[in-house]
Each structure stands twice: as C-alpha cells, then as structure tokens.
Amino acid sequence: DWSETSVHSAAPRKVFTTASSSTSSGPSSSRAARIMQELLGNPPSEGSDAELSEAQVDRIVGELEFVVDWQYDTMLAELMLLSLKDQYPLNECSKVYRRAVMGRLIRKFVFFDCVGEACCSKDASWFNMYRDGAKASIDGCLDKSDANVLHYKARIAIPAPLSTVMAIAHEVDLMPQWNKLVTAPPEVLGRRTAHY
Questions:
Q1: 72 CB contacts (<8 Å, ≥6 apart)?
Q2: Choosing a second label site near 124 at 20 to 30 A (CA), which of 63, 89, 109, 180?
Q3: How far is residue 56's CA from residue 96's CA, in Å, rounded to a whole number?
Q4: Cα dihedral 12/77/63/42 (nearest 10)
C-alpha cells in the first residue's frame, strides 16, 4: 500500500488501491505493463535484491509526469505504479514515491474522489433549486465553512454529442455569445488541458 511511504496527502483515506497489477486486466493494464517494460527492461528475478538505478527512477518519473500532467490519465499512472510495486521492494519503489509527481497524482485522485462524492451525495444539506420533471434539475448546498458560497450540481439532458458539449468549455472566446452575463472573453489563467 503506497500510503505507507513518505508521500503525504490531505486525503482522509487511502488513495491508491491495493490490488496487484497482475489482477488488473484490459487495455490500460497491458499498456502500463508495456511502458514499464520499456522503462525498466526485464523484471528482476524472484527473490533477488532488485534495485532501481537513478537513471531508471528518472525515466519512470519522466513518464509519470507526462501521463499525469499532460495526458491526465491517473488510471494509467496508478497501473504503472502497481506494476513497479509488483517488481521491486517498497524501499526501492519509495525512490519514485518521494518525487513531486506523486503529490500531483494524489491531488488528482483526491479531486476525482471529491467530485464523485459531490455528484453522488445524498447528503441532507443539498436542496433542490429547480426541477423540470425528469428532464433537468439543479441542486444546491451552502458551503459549511463559508455561508456566502453556494455549491451546485445540474443534471440536464443535452441533445448533442458529448464532444460538442465538452467543446463549449474550451471555446472561451465564444463564451460571450452563449452566456450574455460574460461581456468579454475570459482571461485564461494557467495551463489548459483537455479536462479544464
């Protein structure tokens, strides 16, 4: 379990799964195994004192940075780390776990978890603000630490392909045309990714 390493997280629970990569299946699992094979070469023999060289650690961390920061594929990153854990003892894996990319990966997992909890929450603090039969609803919740902040979630059916719906979030220059409350294209702060 990776939470036993020196990586610190604000998460109230263990972020990573404890399943081994050998029990995972599917395209992401085999892709992770291929990536790790390319980065590490042949796996160490059973029972050997396997050690990760600094060059191997740097290659793994470089690939993790690409997968986590640019591809935003946290599942693939987790499978890569599970593959590493299957091949090397914890003290060797901790050479990777102590790197800054692990903090970013954990933050993405925590964010994913928080979004999932908010979307699926049946908490009594959520109240309905709008309902249009079975077609649409908007629920709200006042922030527990700041009563001036309202969190909301909207459930709507949009008769369009998902790619078209997601494009709206990326076409910030067109935002004033479809949202009349925006008077000019908003300024983009930070790096843009496919997810935000």
A1: 108, 193, 194, 195
A2: 109
A3: 10
A4: 120
DSSP codes of every residue in 14-78: --S----GGG--SHHHHHHHHHHHHHH-SPPPTTS-----HHHHHHHHHHHHIIIIIS--HHHHH
Q: How far does Cα 157 stand from its chain's mean position?
A: 25
Q: CB under 8 Å to 84, separation ≥6 — which residues?
A: 36, 40, 60, 93, 96
Instruction: Please give the Cα distance from 139 to 151 (Å, whole number).
Output: 8
* pLDDT band of 100, cuts 50, 70, 90: very high
User: Mean of the pLDDT values across residues 15-30?
Assistant: 49
pLDDT for 164 beyond 90 = no
> In 3D, which of 75, 60, 62 has the Cα closest to residue 105?
75
Contacts of 11 (CB under 8 A, 6+ apart): 106, 109, 110, 113
Residue 57 half-sphere exposure, CB side, CA atoms within 13 Å?
17
Spatial separation of the C-alpha atoms in residues 72 and 155, rounded to whole Å: 25
pLDDT value at residue 111: 85
Tokens of 94: 């901790």
Q: 142 and 149 in contact (C-beta within 8 Å)?
A: yes
**Of 191, 7, 194, 187, which Cα lies nearest the Cα of 95?**
7
Question: In this predicted model, what pLDDT tens digit does every residue of 25-77 receive, in sequence order?
Answer: 566 667 777 777 777 766 665 555 678 889 999 999 999 999 998 888 888 89
